[in-house]
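Students often ask why inverse folding is considered easier than folding. One informal answer: many sequences map to the same fold, so there is more than one right answer. In these notes we will look at a single instance of the problem. The structure comes first.
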């Protein structure tokens, strides 16, 4: 820790990973802090990435592997930043690292510990579409491919049944270690990049759309996991309450846009991607895209959108998002809306996919307080208003990249991470 050119990166999504590799190649020591037991961020929830419909995990896995094998990058999973002191060039960081209770060195990822665990929980990473055990990896293909134990749910660790050692007995490599303790780490770093990503707004807050009430209404990420080959159904598109495939699907754009007060930038392309997937796998399915606005922020996106509109979907304009209502009728979902002539119309479908607005991550409030940096009026991390395209935060030496600053696509996140790295290198040069 005596190296004066250490850098802290908070968040291991695409922006955090790219920044880590760039700084490592520049000869800097990187501490990559992630509160999950895996790295990769939300991109690994996607089966394909627009506009080229490339396999997302195929794109990201080599980056994840490179990071885990890079001697200049120390990955701190299950970790959070608790405190910061000092100034640019000499920050003192306190990190709380939770115990994994599984040895990263000894575990081979065989999975023998999962079936024997008696505790069954909902898997939040899989959007609660499947179960997990108290010892778990968030999804198939997680990296590092080493499980973690939820101490609050584990019968041995929470004291409900200290005699329960089923996972220990099942592990032939001796990787389970109940003696591990949480750690407090002290890091000395020159600069910091915040890349904590985003969450989706809670669809249940919009009662008119029936999310949480009707099983056939899904968020965008729930649908992503349904058609992901490493997801709960291994890519088979079944409805939540049956093993039937939908004959008709409505994709609702701009869900929650009025509530958050901004366009989330990526939803139109994600919705177009979903329409393409459905048409590719369910050739006879009827697909409706219900929109009030279209946002295509990259010049390459227009062709993708036009092809979707001409071949894969019927696009329906609605004049007022707040007047839409989703109810149940004749065993199907009735989607009612007002068209451009302010006339009420409706369609009947088997499935509804909500293109939820992006919002700041759950950790951002606590983190910005610890870092003593400002947030903007929408809750994202604020950048210096006097500098166009700035990635500098209100505290010198701390930079932001990716969706921690605001909604953006993969390309935008990578470009911003490059700018943040340039800011760090400039700081080091000084």
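Output (designed amino acids):
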């Amino acid at each position: 820790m005596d190296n004066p050119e250490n850098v802290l990166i908070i968040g291991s999504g695409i922006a955090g990973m790219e920044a880590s590799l760039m700084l490592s190649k520049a000869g800097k020591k990187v501490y990559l802090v992630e509160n999950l037991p895996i790295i990769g961020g939300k991109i690994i929830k996607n089966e394909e990435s627009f506009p080229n419909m490339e396999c997302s995990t195929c794109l990201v896995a080599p980056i994840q592997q490179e990071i885990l094998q890079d001697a200049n990058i120390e990955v701190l999973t299950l970790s959070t930043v608790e405190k910061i002191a000092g100034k640019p060039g000499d920050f003192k960081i306190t990190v709380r690292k939770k115990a994994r209770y599984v040895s990263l060195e000894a575990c081979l990822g065989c999975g023998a510990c999962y079936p024997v665990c008696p505790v069954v929980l909902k898997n939040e990473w899989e959007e609660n579409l499947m179960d997990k055990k108290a010892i778990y990896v968030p999804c198939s293909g997680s990296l590092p491919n080493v499980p973690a134990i939820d101490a609050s749910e584990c019968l041995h660790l929470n004291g409900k049944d200290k005699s329960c050692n089923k996972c220990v007995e099942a592990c032939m490599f001796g990787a389970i270690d109940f003696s591990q303790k949480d750690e407090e780490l002290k890091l000395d770093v020159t600069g910091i990049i915040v890349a904590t990503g985003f969450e989706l707004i809670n669809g249940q807050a919009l009662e008119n759309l029936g999310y949480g009430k009707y099983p056939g209404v899904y968020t965008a990420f729930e649908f992503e996991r349904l058609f992901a080959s490493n997801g709960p159904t291994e890519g088979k598109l079944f409805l939540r309450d049956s093993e039937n495939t939908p004959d008709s699907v409505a994709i609702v754009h701009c869900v929650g846009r009025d509530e958050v007060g901004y366009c989330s930038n990526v939803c139109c392309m994600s919705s177009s991607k979903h329409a393409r997937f459905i048409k590719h796998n369910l050739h006879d399915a009827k697909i409706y895209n219900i929109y009030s606005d279209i946002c295509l922020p990259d010049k390459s996106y227009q062709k993708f959108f036009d092809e979707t509109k001409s071949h894969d979907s019927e696009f329906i304009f609605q004049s007022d998002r707040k007047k839409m209502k989703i109810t149940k009728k004749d065993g199907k979902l009735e989607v009612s809306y007002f068209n451009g002539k302010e006339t009420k119309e409706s369609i009947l479908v088997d499935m509804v996919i909500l293109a939820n607005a992006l919002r700041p991550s759950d950790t951002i409030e606590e983190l910005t307080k610890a870092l003593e940096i400002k947030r903007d009026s929408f809750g994202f991390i604020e950048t210096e208003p006097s500098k166009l395209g700035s990635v500098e935060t209100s505290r010198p030496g701390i930079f932001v990249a990716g969706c921690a600053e605001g909604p953006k696509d993969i390309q935008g996140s990578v470009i911003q991470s490059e700018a943040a790295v340039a800011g760090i290198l400039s700081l080091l040069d000084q």
